[in-house]
């Protein structure tokens, strides 16, 4: 059964926490929400202590009034189960439910997500709370969506207590079909006398005297993701029993630093995929991270998705919390819409005056309505109303980048050839030139259907199983273009090195064989023929059918190929055995995608983003000008700019720092 959000158009709002304010403020909230164009708010996310003041005793009076008030004013509720922050009374009754960190320290309650994901007491209490909430509000007219928990794994992705150890063992027994010999083989426990003779001997990968077993650590990461997923599914089923037609979501965190959950496994379990995204203050071109994140979330969703949280201005949790510049709030939000978001929401509606997030920006800031943020919030509400017809349209791409959480986890484990390898840095290094060229990109699993694409890039696929490797190889053999980055295909799903030379699973498809790796030191570089340099990595590549496109001109491998091209089946494969400098990498990827027949969405000036969403009867071209200069972009002769409602036959002018959204009928 497909469950869709009933809120029309592009949903707009944020986290609403009226419990933090006296009730006389609520009427002003409703008036200002209507002024801003708010259509949906998330409520109840951190209200467990107020809703259940003691075990089994509920007080829904405040939430009753809030939901009734929202409905009266035509604002839908994304109603949360408040299970991300159990109350103090729960931990006094169940101290065993508190998490234990990797160093064996028991953590205290007093913030959020201070619970062990494997705690039976927590699961029982959370489901009891969800059942009570669902029973009371399943038929409430304000209810538009269930918001399950909040940011799973943000602060408690791993717990190392004995209860978690027992749950880990149960997960392992299921994974290895209760065959301890199979586990020993997968983990390579003959090394360092780690062989297990009894399941009870297995512990979480707690600190030990030397480097821990990599497969042990990888399975632990898989377990932790699955354990939290099981909590989501349990709550979702309780809600679904009470309200079968109401969609359920939970907010992902596809952000630069968060890597705790395998969202490819999570996404199919959600009726609507939603995401939280916050800018890194240290990133001078955060618009690229917004694009990368949006493309990844759209790919996870398989279509439109919801932006559940981002910030109107500064956050409160970075070393220096940068405010957004003029027009940045609008550009950020519409960039997410351009890449598939059918809803835009913020943390939070009204800036808090107390608590841990009191210095986090909000839709209604501390300064009130006489503020730039408020004026920008109202303007954005009008923009999103004007874009109602864009809802449901989808992105189109001829390029796919392979993204895999298992590979990320495995590559960033200790004892690699280089500790300088960082998965997301490598992905962004390859993504950025495509973004600058205006090329549309999807992200895919290694085993995904690749038939829609002309070009598939695997910048960093250290771990890949046989099915994934064969899928990528067959794509190239069948006429596609495949480009693979260094240290890919090196290990299988158990972190076992593929013998016979690198790049392991892709040797035959790439027509190369490497017999030795030469990682580069921080700050070290090697020259490349044709100009440019390589950093981070080099290796002794021996062509086995491939031609050298570029070679090292300095360092211990001078004269050895650094970039190769190979004809495979009716397609082409490329291997990039170093990290070229940005200009050189951009030139290489431009050559690869041009040969593959991939063109940009629209020709634009540097710093001007052009993104396309395709509807049933029209295309929607988003033009986002990140520069300080006006720009002109060619459009269809019968085009209409939706934000102004004016025809733009043949071209659209976009002032510096502004956005245009153009409907082009088909």
Automatic annotation (TrEMBL):
It catalyses: Hydrolysis of terminal non-reducing beta-D-galactose residues in beta-D-galactosides. The keyword Ribosomal protein does not apply. Residues 607-664 form the Beta-galactosidase C-terminal domain. GO terms for molecular function: beta-galactosidase activity. SUPFAM superfamilies: (Trans)glycosidases, Class I glutamine amidotransferase-like. Its EC number is 3.2.1.23. PANTHER family: BETA-GALACTOSIDASE GANA (PTHR36447). This is Beta-galactosidase. The lineage of its organism: Bacteria, Bacillati, Actinomycetota, Actinomycetes, Kitasatosporales.
């Amino acid at each position: 059964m497909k469950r869709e959000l009933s809120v029309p158009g592009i949903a707009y709002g944020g986290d609403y926490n009226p419990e933090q304010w006296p009730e006389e403020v609520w009427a002003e909230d409703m008036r200002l929400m209507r002024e801003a164009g708010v259509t949906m708010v998330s409520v109840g996310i951190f209200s467990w202590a107020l809703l259940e003041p003691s075990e089994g005793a509920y007080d829904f009076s405040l939430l009753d009034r809030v939901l009734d008030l929202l409905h009266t004013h035509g604002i839908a509720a994304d109603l949360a189960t408040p299970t991300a922050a159990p109350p103090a009374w729960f931990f006094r009754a169940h101290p065993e439910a508190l998490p234990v960190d990797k160093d064996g320290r028991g953590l205290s309650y007093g913030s959020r997500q201070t619970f062990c994901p494997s705690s039976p007491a927590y699961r029982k209490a959370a489901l009891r709370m969800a059942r009570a909430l669902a029973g009371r509000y399943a038929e409430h007219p304000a209810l538009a969506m269930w918001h399950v928990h909040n940011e799973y794994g943000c602060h408690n992705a791993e717990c190392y207590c004995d209860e978690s150890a027992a749950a880990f063992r149960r997960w392992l027994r299921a994974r290895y079909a209760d065959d301890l010999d199979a586990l020993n083989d997968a983990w390579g426990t003959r090394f360092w006398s780690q062989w297990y003779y009894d399941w009870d001997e297995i512990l979480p990968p707690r600190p030990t005297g030397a480097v821990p077993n990599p497969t042990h650590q990888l399975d632990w990461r898989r377990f932790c993701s699955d354990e939290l997923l099981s909590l989501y599914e349990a709550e979702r089923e309780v809600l679904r029993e009470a309200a079968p037609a109401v969609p359920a979501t939970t907010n992902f965190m596809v952000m630069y630093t968060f890597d705790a959950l395998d969202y490819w496994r999570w996404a199919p379990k959600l009726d609507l995929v939603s995401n939280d995204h916050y800018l890194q203050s240290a990133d001078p071109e955060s618009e690229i991270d917004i694009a990368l994140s949006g493309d990844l979330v759209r790919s996870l969703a398989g279509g439109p998705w919801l932006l559940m949280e981002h910030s109107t201005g500064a956050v409160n949790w970075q070393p220096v919390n940068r405010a957004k510049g003029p027009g940045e709030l609008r550009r950020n939000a519409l960039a997410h819409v351009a890449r598939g978001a059918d809803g835009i929401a913020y943390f939070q509606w009204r800036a808090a005056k107390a608590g841990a997030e009191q210095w986090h920006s909000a839709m209604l800031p501390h300064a009130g309505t006489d503020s730039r943020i408020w004026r920008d919030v109202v303007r954005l509400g009008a923009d999103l109303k004007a874009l109602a017809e864009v809802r449901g349209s989808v992105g189109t791409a001829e390029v796919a980048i392979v993204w895999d959480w298992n590979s990320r986890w495995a590559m960033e484990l200790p004892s690699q050839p280089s500790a300088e390898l960082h998965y997301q840095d490598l992905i962004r290094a390859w993504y950025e030139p495509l973004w600058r060229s205006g090329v549309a990109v999807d992200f895919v699993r290694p085993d995904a259907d690749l038939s829609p694409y002309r070009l598939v890039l695997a910048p960093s696929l250290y771990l890949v199983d046989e099915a994934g490797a064969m899928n990528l190889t067959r794509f190239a053999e069948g006429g596609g273009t495949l480009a693979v980055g260094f240290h890919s295909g090196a290990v299988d799903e158990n972190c076992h090195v593929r013998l016979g030379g690198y790049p392991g699973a892709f040797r035959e498809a790439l027509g190369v064989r490497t017999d030795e790796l030469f990682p580069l030191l921080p700050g070290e570089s090697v020259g490349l023929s044709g100009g440019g340099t390589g950093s981070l990595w080099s290796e002794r590549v021996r062509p086995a059918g491939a031609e050298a496109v570029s070679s090292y001109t300095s360092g211990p491998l001078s004269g050895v190929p650094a970039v190769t091209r190979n004809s495979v089946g009716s397609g082409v494969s490329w291997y990039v055995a170093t990290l070229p400098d940005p200009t050189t990498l951009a030139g290489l990827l431009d050559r690869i995608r041009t040969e593959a027949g991939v063109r940009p969405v629209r020709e634009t000036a540097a710093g001007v983003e052009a993104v396309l969403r395709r509807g049933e009867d029209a295309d929607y071209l988003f033009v986002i000008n990140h520069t300080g200069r006006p720009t002109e972009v060619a459009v269809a002769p019968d085009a209409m700019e939706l934000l102004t409602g004016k025809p733009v036959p043949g071209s659209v002018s976009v002032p510096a720092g502004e956005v245009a959204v153009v409907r082009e009928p088909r």
